[in-house]
Each structure stands twice: as structure tokens, then as C-alpha cells.
Amino acid sequence: MGKRFRGxxxxxxxxxxxxxxxxxxxxxxxxxxxxxxxxxxxxxxxxENEKLSKENTDLVQENGNLKNENDIxxxxxxxxxxxxxxxxxxxxxxxxxMKTAEKKLKKLDKDYRTSNKVNHIMCVVFVVFVAVLVIxxxxxxxxxxxxxxxxxxxxxxxxxxxxxxxxxxxxxxxxxxxVRVAAGIPLSPxxxxxx
Length: 195
Fold this sequence. Notes:
Elements: H1 16-22, E1 26-27, E2 30-31, H2 32-148, H3 151-154, H4 156-160, H5 164-167, H6 174-182
Antiparallel strand pairs: 1-2
């Protein structure tokens, strides 16, 4: 084992060979081999520290990028909220317009139905009026000349009678003319006589 040299820690056994190679010089009361080990560890720690520092820098940069992306997403979210609010207002406005238009359409439909009924009634009245007018015109053109022209005396009644009615007052048109004059109807056989 050999004796323990000056400054050699108790855990280093044996240390004579290292003292032989490195000498017995010590720095701050520690042997040179321990100092080299510590320096090697220090270099390793420095390299590891540099590596961690670089990784930390990368993480800081990535964190900054994530913050920027987060800010962008927040802005987009706010924009979407604004768009959503605008669309909600537009939807409510359109709903009000649709309700107003629906009321107007119902009113127009009601007015149309009423107008349609009135038109039907007026059409029926007009048809009835035209029918009555045609009947009156036909009556005026057929019956009045028959009464005023002596058709009774010259035709049917004269043939049935022995000539007294056919050749007398009836045959001469006195009955037809008298009836028309008494009724205030002109002797003209035209349809205007009725009006």
C-alpha cells in the first residue's frame, strides 16, 4: 500500500503511483491528479452547461414563437368573435325583415282574396245584367212589332174568327197600337224604344 503522502485524500488508495507520475506538488492543498480530475469534470460541466444554455436559448426562442402564434390565434379568435357578433346582428335584422315581409304578404294575400271575391261578384252581376239586357232586346225586337204590326188580325186570330175580328179593329192594328200608346211605348220597333 505504501504510506499516504501529504495532501492525499483517504479515499485514494494507493496513490504512490500517481505521486510518482505527477509528483507531490499540490495546489491549494490538493494533489495534482485530483485537480486534473476536477478540471476535466469542470470542462465536462462547462460543455454540458453550454449545451443546456443552447437548449435553453432554443426553448426561449420556441417559447417566443409560441407566444407569437398564441397572439395570432387570440387575434383570430377575437376577429371570429366580432364576425360572429356581426353575423348574429345581421341574422336578427334579416329575421325582422322576414317577419315584416311575411306580414305584408299575408295582408296582400288577404287583399287579393277580398278583391277576387269582389271581382267574382261583379262578374256575376255583369253577366246577369248582360243576360237581362239581351232578353229585353229580344223581347223588344220580337214582341212589339208583333203587337203593333197587325199580326194578330192578319194571322192567327183572323183565321180563327169568321172575319169580324180579323177585319175589324184588331186586324187593323188598333189593339196593338193602343196598348203601346197606353203603356207609353213609342210605336218604333227598334230596341231603343225600351230605353
